[in-house]
Amino acid sequence: MHRVGLVTAGKHVVVVGAGLAGLTTAVVLAEAGASVHVIAEQVPGVTSLAAGAMWGPYLVEPKDKVEQWGQRSLKIFRELAQDPATGVRLTSGIEASRTAEAAPEWATTLPGFRPCERAELPAGFTAGYRFTVPLIDMPTHLDYLLRRLRDAGVWSSSDG
């Protein structure tokens, strides 16, 4: 699915952590041909299970790399949203603020982006915008990643 330039078949890799980042890393490496072992306190990780997941490269550095990473992940999540079993879906909504703030640059490139009319905003909010973004149901998505790992022959260990 995704090209990994530094990993070749036969390499042995240990991934520490079984949250979204750890499992995604393990999937990409395993599907690129690496032999992967996931070590975690719990599989799947409990932090990601409790986290909400709306796509957006918010307050991430380094800015010169974030745009590339954001666009790549957005493309992948849009593809995943075509299959309900992944836990990813495209969702339209409003992001509102109590202070007048400009929308982040990345948001202005999203489908359906537009500033909200005052009447659209919830009570007490003065600014906002609409857009469509990937929204990830974490328990479903983590199960999806675990299925991909099992299909790729990855094994894990935990002490929980």
Automatic annotation (TrEMBL):
Cofactor: FAD
Entry keyword set: FAD, Flavoprotein, Oxidoreductase
All residue ranges annotated as the FAD dependent oxidoreductase domain in the record: 12-153
Catalytic activity: a D-alpha-amino acid + O2 + H2O = a 2-oxocarboxylate + H2O2 + NH4(+)
Pfam families: DAO (PF01266)
Enzyme class, broadest EC rank: oxidoreductase
Sequence similarity: Belongs to the DAMOX/DASOX family.
The protein's name: D-amino-acid oxidase
Organism: Streptomyces lucensis JCM 4490
